[in-house]
Amino acid sequence: MPKIAAMFQVMLGVAALAVMGAPALAAESAPQKGFECHDKALTGSGPGFKSSQEESEEAAKVDWLEKAKAIYADADWNAAKDPLMQCVKQGLYSKCFATGIPCRPKPE
Question: SS3 string of 9-20?
Fold first, then answer.
């Protein structure tokens, strides 16, 4: 019986942390003040696997930026809402995927 009570306490603690952390996550995903954002996220990956993760991340950002500039000519990865870089490895090679919602400064 004590094991069940201990597990229940751990689950309650995790749930409490998740609830407390949710507003912070929502605040992080808000666009910067003075920016307008597209309604959908884009994903870029670049061609093939690269021999270094840095090269793969850069290829993913370049591919994402090409797609974002089709929506906003002045789009920038650093201004993206909810930016996320995910990479997978296959042996010594990696492939990364850049995902984010393109944003730009609001026109004056």
Answer: HHHHHHHHHHHH
Residue with tokens 């400064």: 105
How many other β-carbons are positioned within 10 Å of the β-carbon of residue 99?
A: 17
The reply to whether the predicted model has a pTM over 0.85 is no
Local structure of 57: helix, strand or coil: helix
Burial string for 25-37 (b: 16+ CB within 10 Å, else e) reads eeeeeebeeeeeb
44 neighbors 63 (Cβ within 8 angstroms) = yes
Task: For residue range 4-29, list pLDDT tens digits in order.
Answer: 544 445 444 433 333 333 333 333 45
Q: Which fold has domain 35-105?
A: Endonuclease I-creI (3.10.28)
Which amino acid, residue 68? A
